[in-house]
Amino acid sequence: MAFPTLNNPDLAGAASPARSSVSRTIGGRYILLGQLGVGGMGRVHRVLDRLTGEYVALKQITVPAGTADSQPVPTPTQFELSSDPRVTLAREFQAMSTLRHPHILNVIDYGFADGQPYFTMELLENAATILEYGQPLPLADKVTLLVQMLQALIYLHRRGLIHRDLKPGNVLVANHTVKVLDFGLSTDIDQATGTVGTLAYMPPEVLYGHPAGPASDLYAVGVIAYQLFTQQHPFLDRPDASRTLIEQILDEQFKLNTALLPPEVAPIIKRLLAHAMTARYQNAADVIADLSQVIGQPLPLETAATRESFLQAARFVGREPELLRLKAALQQTINGQGEAWLIAGESGVGKSRLVDELRTLALVRGVQVLRSSAAASGGSPYWLWRDILRGLVILSNLSDLEASILQPLVPDIATLIARPVAAAPATLNPTDAQTRLFATVTAILRRQAQPTLLLLEDLQWAGSESLQLIAWLTQELAGRPLLIVGNYRDDERPNLPELLPGMQPLPLRRLANKDIVALSESMLGKTGRAQTVVDLLQRETEGNPFFLVEVVRALAEEAGQLDRIGTRTLPTKVLSGGMAQLIQRRLEQVPSGDRALLQASAVAGRRLDLKMLREIDPATDLDKWLTTCANAAVLVLQDEHWRFAHDKLRDGVLVKLTTDQTRQLHQQVAQALEKVYPDAPEQAAQLTYHWAMAGNAPKEKQYAYAAGREALRSGANQEAVRFLERALALDDAAGSPITEEARLWQARANRRLGQAYMGLGRMVESQHYLEETLRLTLWPVPRTPVRLWLSLLRQILTQVLHRAWPRRFVGTAAQAESPLMLEAVRAAQLIAEVYYFASQKFYLLDAGLKTLNLSENIGPCPELARAYGNMSIIAGVIPLEQLAELYVRLALSMARQMNDLPAMAWNYTTASTYTGGRAQWLRTLEINDLALDLCQQTADKRTLGLALGSRSLIPYHRGQFADCEQANTAWQAAGREIDNLQHQALALTGRAECLLRLGQTDAALARLQELDVLWAERDAQRVDFASKFREQGVRAYALWRSAAPAQALAMANQAMQLIDYVSSPSQAINGDGVADVAEVYLSFWEGAVTVGETVDPALQKATGQICAVLLQYGRVFLLLQARAALWQGMYAWLRGRPQAARRHWQRGLQVAQRLGMPYDEAMIHYQLGRFAETGPGRDQHLSRACTLLAELGCTYDLDRAKAARPGP
Question: Is the N or C terminus of the chain more exposed, i.e. has fewer CB atoms within 10 Å?
Answer without folding.
Answer: C
